[in-house]
Design brief:
single chain; alpha/beta; seven-stranded mixed sheet; 35% helix
Length: 461
């Protein structure tokens, strides 16, 4: 029996190296554990989807064997974005589904994103699966072998999105899927909405031969920027490997990072739902909270992590949430799961009312800011370091110190953030200010706090 590596059970998903830490046997055992958990929570069906990675078909088969062993009836939806899997779970499988996906990780990786009985699994639930999968025979005696059927939700998804989202005029857009699974569905969706679509790397290829499917990194957006600037597309959309995150570029060559996308979405949603909460994570610009207030809403900052944001959204019933990584959650006219393609559709709905979409995006509030900066630390050390800083550091001149997820230190002209990553042994830092001088001052204050807790830290700022 293959040993289960504890390290593949991450905070928000299960992820490992195929045929090493993530073998067919391991995935089958995890499937049986998921099946047992589903039955205990009142679900007897599970949708299973997979991304375009070369290893995904075999891992999906292993997962389905495990689920069926536990007595779960499986709906095999085949090749799909993670949001399509969520859609299938919501409409076809009692809120239960598993996507085989490596998301934006290198080709040798793969993993599982999971929801059971309407709840996305993260944190303690994923650790519970680790414990249960140690002895899969304990969950293989539920009385019967589950059945398997095949059904794909895309046609229903297409009808629902195009029935919900309407463009005011036809738009010309460019799409870069980075050879991820979104390429199999995004062009068809936007054409059905009335858009003229220029495709870049929309052929699904699990070797990712052109560039990595991760719009969080500027180098992956350069070809899309060129296509928009040199062609007649009004705007450019990019998707990550499994289609749950959206990247946006303008005709002027600017990248519209997700926190600025959220500002535009917040204004639109709050026109229909004034006074509502809008949730965003601690890495987002201070302009998000200001924009929400100006639009008549209530800003709610929360912890980073798409599963944590989704759980907060469900608790508060807010109509909109988003995080800096690119996960946007619409909970007004949509069921509240993160979907890069649907977010792109909502963006087209807003921008199609404008004569110059790029000008609208370029005018969104923006300060000087850094990308995510990472400070490597020893395995298991990052959370203890952040706790030490929370207890010991002081920040003269700050207006607020927020500790819901690390240290976010607010100043009149910006903020500094240091938090412990939940997925890798690093401290994640981000800084923003209205001026270059302010940015340097805030970085210096947080630098002193990190070095007081860890004098040998190698800081990139």
């Amino acid at each position: 029996m293959t040993a289960l590596t504890a390290g593949i059970f991450k905070a928000y998903d299960i992820r490992g190296i195929v045929d090493k830490t993530l073998t067919d046997e391991v995935v089958e055992r995890i499937g049986t554990a998921i099946g047992g958990l589903a039955l205990e929570r009142g679900a007897s069906r599970c949708a299973v989807g997979r991304d375009g990675r070369l290893s995904s078909p075999k891992l999906a088969r292993a997962l389905m064997r495990g689920l069926r062993t536990a007595g779960i009836d499986v709906i095999d939806i085949g090749l799909a974005t993670t949001p399509l899997l969520y859609f299938a779970a919501h409409h076809m499988a009692e809120g239960t589904g598993v996507q085989i996906t490596g998301s934006h990780n290198p080709p040798e990786y793969n993993g599982l994103k999971m929801m059971v009985a309407g709840k996305t699994l993260y944190g303690d639930d994923i650790q519970t699966l680790h414990e249960r999968a140690q002895d899969p025979t304990a969950y293989a005696a539920y009385g019967r072998q589950g059945a398997v059927s095949q059904d794909h939700p895309f046609e229903r998804y297409l009808r629902e999105v195009t029935g919900d989202v309407k463009v005011a005029r036809p738009m010309k857009i460019a799409i870069d899927a980075g050879n991820g699974v979104a390429g199999a569905f995004a062009p068809q969706l936007y054409r059905a909405m009335g858009c003229e679509v220029q495709e870049l790397y929309c052929e699904v290829d699990g070797t990712f031969p052109n560039h990595h499917p991760d719009p969080a990194h500027p180098e992956n957006l350069q070809e899309l920027i060129r296509a928009v600037q040199e062609g007649d597309a009004e705007i450019g959309l990019a998707f990550d490997g499994d289609g749950d995150r959206l990247g946006v570029v303008t005709k002027t060559g600017n990248i519209v990072w997700p926190d600025r996308q959220l500002m535009l979405f917040a204004r639109d949603v709050l026109r229909a739902r004034p006074g509502s909460q809008v949730i965003f994570d601690v890495k987002c610009s201070a302009h998000v909270a200001r924009t929400v207030r100006e639009a008549g809403g209530e800003p709610l900052m929360w912890r980073t992590g798409h599963s944590l944001i989704k759980a907060k959204l469900k608790e508060t019933k807010a109509p909109l949430a988003g995080e800096m990584s690119g996960h946007i959650f619409f909970n007004d006219r949509w069921p509240g799961f993160d979907d890069g393609l649907y977010a792109g559709a909502r963006l087209m709905e807003i921008l199609s009312r404008e004569a110059d979409p790029s000008a609208v995006l370029d005018a969104l509030p923006q300060s000087r800011s850094t990308p995510e900066l990472q400070v490597p630390v020893a395995e298991g050390e990052n959370h203890a370091l952040v706790t030490r800083m929370q207890e010991q550091a002081s920040f003269p001149g700050s207006t607020e110190v927020i500790t819901i997820d690390g240290l976010r230190v607010e100043y009149p002209d910006g903020f500094g953030l240091v938090r412990a990553s939940n997925t890798t042994p690093v401290l994640v830092c981000r800084f923003e200010s209205d001026t270059d001088e302010g940015l340097a001052r805030i970085q210096s204050a947080l630098r002193d706090a990190v070095l007081a807790a860890k004098p040998d830290a190698k800081l990139p700022f």
